[in-house]
Known about the structure:
Layout (H helix, E strand, L loop, with lengths): L1 E7 L9 E10 L5 E4 L5 E6 L4 E5 L8 E3 L1 E4 L6 E4 L3 E9 L1 H8 L10 E3 H5 L1 H12 L3 H16 L8 H12 L6 H8 L3 H12 L3 H22 L6 H8 L4 H12 L3 H7 L26
Antiparallel strand pairs: 1-2, 2-9, 3-8, 4-7, 4-9, 5-6, 5-8, 7-10
Helix pairs in contact: 1-4, 3-4, 5-6, 5-8, 8-9, 9-10
InterPro entries: AraC_XylS_family_regulators (IPR050204), DUF6597 (IPR046532), HTH_AraC (IPR018060)
Keywords: DNA-binding, Transcription, Transcription regulation
GO molecular function: DNA-binding transcription factor activity; sequence-specific DNA binding
Amino acid sequence: MTSEFLAHRPHPALRGLVAMMVGYRQTGLTPALHRGLPSPHLTLILTLDEPLELVAHPDPGQPPGSCAALVGGLHTRPALIATGTRQAGVQVSLTPAGARALLGVPAGALRSRDEPLADVLGGPAAELLDRVRGAGSWPARFAAVDDVLGRLALRDAPGAAPEVTHAWQLTTGSAGRLPVATVAATVGWSERHLRQRFTAEFGLSPKEAARVVRFDVARRRLGSAVARGSDVDLAGLAAGAGYADQAHLTREWRELAGLPPRRWLAAEHQLLRADADDPLRFVQDGPAPVSTS
């Protein structure tokens, strides 16, 4: 099996809109299912050759299908992706602000949905995919994404209400530990009003967002611990990430990832990054970005 992963620091014009960009290519895989896990970012994928085969979406009412370029909204259930024997593409992690600025819709419009990029973005989607597929190197592919998304960022798209944006920042900045009541009081809204506006904007309620952020932190810490060769201390991981105990962590993992932590690690083993420095990173993890321009 061969694996190639490369992180790219997005152009400064995309700061706050694109959290990270990763190019990936793997061959010789044993056909399996990859779980696209809940995270605080929307996912935009541009495949380089084979389309993405989605066996199940976070929204169980959405039928399976394949797509050359897609965007997925925030969700609380895993997407199941058939990897086949190879996969290659560019994954772009968008912030909710990036959804508004680059896609022209609030993240809430894509809750639990995986949609063909052209259906959301329109004409620029074809240019984006064509340029990425036509480029002959990773720097050229990243430059194409920077260029197309950079032009989209110049549009005068309306932003979210400042209170909603602040509530999101409080939720993510506290790693999902700040009580919803505290978030509501801080932004000056009732909990009910915050829940309505927050859910409409992001597609997740404040409580769901806190769960997803906490899970994302725990998943990254688990991957880092295994990469260092440390024992998998789930009790310590639970305590450090703000769960009541290991049983709480495991329940949340089952609901958000579809598997408990150790089974998830085993199931995703062959899709882990193969580089020696960071063997347990996933495409969606995004190590410290390295500019390739």
